[in-house]
Amino acid sequence: MLQETEKNTWIELELTEGRTHEVKQMGDAIGHPVLKLIRVSFAGQRGDGLRPGESRPLTEAEIDSLRRVAGLGSLRRAVRAGRR
Q: Are 45 and 62 in contact (CB under 8 A)?
């Protein structure tokens, strides 16, 4: 629990695999509907410093990290091997 007010409670959840509307369904199941949901990271990548709707290019390290998570291996090795 991060913060509790008279009307709301802010909590932090960490899911290793999120299914559609899973968090909202969990809140409804215990009588605490989810009013706002913010994803702070996806596949280990964070959007720190970005405003809603803003984007930035990924670094090579971030791309390699995402490729490893997806089981695709390093981008550098793929480029050397002639495939992406």
A: yes
Angstrom distance (rounded) from CA 45 to CA 57: 12
Inter-residue contact 36 to 13 (CB < 8 Å):
no
Taking a C-beta distance cutoff of 8 angstroms, is the pair 51, 43 a contact?
no
Tens digit of pLDDT for each residue in 9-49?
898 888 877 788 899 999 999 998 999 888 888 878 888 88
**Percentage above 90 pLDDT, the chain:** 17
Q: What letter does residue 50 receive in the DSSP assignment? A: P
Q: Rounded to whole angstroms, how far apart are CA atoms 56 and 7?
A: 36
Cα(74)–Cα(67) distance, integer angstroms: 6
Dihedrals φ, ψ of 8, to 5°?
Answer: -135, 160
